[in-house]
Each structure stands twice: as structure tokens, then as C-alpha cells.
Amino acid sequence: MKEYTTQKNFQFIKSxxxxxxxxxxxxxxxxxxxxxxxxxxxxxxDEQGGVWFLMNRNGYRHAGDSNYFPAQLSFYRKGYRFTLxxxxxxxxxxxxxxxxxxxxxxxxxxxxxxxxxxxVKMQMTKATYFEWSGDRPxxxxxxxxxxxxxxxxxxxxxxxxxxxxxx
Length: 167
Known about the structure:
The chain is of the alpha+beta class. It has three helices and seven strands, in the order H-E-E-E-E-E-H-E-H-E. A six-stranded antiparallel beta barrel has the order 1-2-3-6-5-4. A hairpin with a 4-residue loop joins strand 2 and strand 3 (50-56).
């Protein structure tokens, strides 16, 4: 039963990542990794729970001994009634063949300049899903609260559903 639930949760998280695609990528261990927080677009989510995306090198270098380090992806897009935070272990590679394979370029195409591109695979270990309610308020106090949130550029009422998944 637990395996079925885990697979169902994984498919749910995978569908939400594919809906939004863009995320804020941040590193949990600043001492080990010398890259800035950046906006990335998920290329694909594999069946083992890996989220693949590209990022610019921007002259930064990996300073740690290990290729794996803790990281987080925060998926959000205006107009969607949910956000998703995924944490796990990320791995960075600049291998041209691997980048071409993940992107889906044929091997006969012209070689890419991978000096400024990094391929990142983040293995999901935990996902937190937040969903907002978009219903209109029915009482006077709720209307005031709703208008205050709209004033703060938020068109949704705060968290209605909060789910956490472990992989």
C-alpha cells in the first residue's frame, strides 16, 4: 500500500512541476557551492525522482570535494493557485554529451559550447505543496483581509491545503 501511495504522490508532484516548469534554484550549503540563486526551467522529471535543468555558469566554480550538495527548487508562477518547494541533493555536470542527451539533441548536430552551461540534476528527497483557495470572502472581516492581501499583490486567500511528501 505504501509503495502505491508513494508512486501516486510522485506522479502528483511530477505533474505540478510540469505545469509550472520555472523555479528559483537555491543552494542549502553556501560554503560548499559558490553559485548565486537563479531562476531555472525544468527540462524533465525522470522516473527516479530527478529534476533536470540547465543553468548558466557565470564564471562561478564548485568549491567542494563532492559533486553532490543540498539544494532547493521553489516552483511558483503567477496565475497558478499553488506553489511547490522541492529539496534534495543536486549534482552539476558540464559534460557536452550528457547535456545533448538530456536536451534531446541528435548526436549528428553541431557541438554545443558548454563552457557557460551547466546541467543540474536534483534528486528529490522532500516536496512541500501549498494550495490557495480562490473563493470570494463572505463576511465583512474576510473581505477586509482579502482586500489587504490584494493590496499586497496577492489575489488568493492564504494556504488552504498544505501537503508534505518524502521520497
